[in-house]
Design a protein that fits this description.
6 strands; 4-stranded antiparallel beta sheet; alpha+beta; 238 residues; two-stranded antiparallel sheet; 3 helices; 11% strand
């Protein structure tokens, strides 16, 4: 009887051990399945981020084309007219008139560059505000700090800036690869009157609300009241 009781106890212990082992194996399998699921989700997230970057770049290129197409059409018409004039060898057109026409084409090209510069500054303002939306509505301290929000490092280069070249990688660029001045880095908030970025070539500026202004010759950027703002020159003199 004692032997039977001992055997029964052993069987019960073995049964508990087997159950515990089976439960542990199930737990390991569940953990493995969870790890695989998380890995798959991370891969999908990386793919979505890549798709988002490519979409943002495509949108930028489409915006550039929409700006440039009318100007290209005008230049094409101008070239056709010039070719026709040269073919007919009209003596009525003086050399001064000819070079004035060519100069007009240069003016159209610079106008296109100025518009592209405005588009760059709008994208920089948008990137800064997106970064700020997850960092307490503060302004980033550097261009590199908001690298994830920049679709391409080409946004940091004004098309009229021939002294610099765009960075190859948006995550690795030096301050000297940006045409634009970052006037309010690390500001505590996005003040609509404060200038965030400025193009020293065209005197275009991005304000804290994300808008871009093309300042005329009678308006300049000044440091006043602890921040950079725009002000008319006659107001400064008064």
């Amino acid at each position: 009887m004692v032997a039977q009781s001992s055997t029964l106890s052993g069987l019960k212990a073995a049964n508990r051990s087997l159950r515990a082992g089976a439960a542990e194996q199930d737990s390991r399998q569940n953990n493995s399945a969870e790890i695989q699921r998380l890995a798959a989700e991370n891969q999908e997230l990386d793919r979505l981020r890549k798709d988002q970057d490519e979409l943002a770049q495509l949108r930028e290129e489409i915006a550039d084309l929409q700006v440039l197409l009318p100007i290209i059409d005008r230049i094409r018409i101008e070239n056709q007219d010039l070719s026709a004039r040269l073919a007919r060898r009209r003596d009525s057109e003086t050399s001064e008139e000819f070079f004035a026409r060519v100069g007009g084409m240069d003016d159209m090209k610079e106008k296109a560059f100025r518009i592209k510069c405005v588009n760059n500054l709008k994208n920089l303002g948008l990137a800064a505000r997106i970064w700020g939306s997850v960092h307490g509505d503060a302004v980033p301290s550097t261009f590199l700090e908001m690298k994830a929000e920049l679709a391409t490092p080409k946004l940091l280069l004004c098309p009229s800036d021939t002294a610099r070249t765009a960075a190859e990688d948006r995550t690795q660029f030096a301050p000297n690869q940006s045409s634009y001045e970052f006037l309010s880095p690390g500001a505590a908030e996005f003040d609509p009157q404060e200038v965030l970025f400025r193009c020293p070539i065209h005197n275009n500026v991005t304000l804290g609300d994300g808008s871009v202004q093309q300042l005329g010759s009678n308006v300049q950027v000044v440091f006043k009241g602890g921040k950079w703002i725009t002000e008319r020159k006659n107001e400064i003199l008064n």
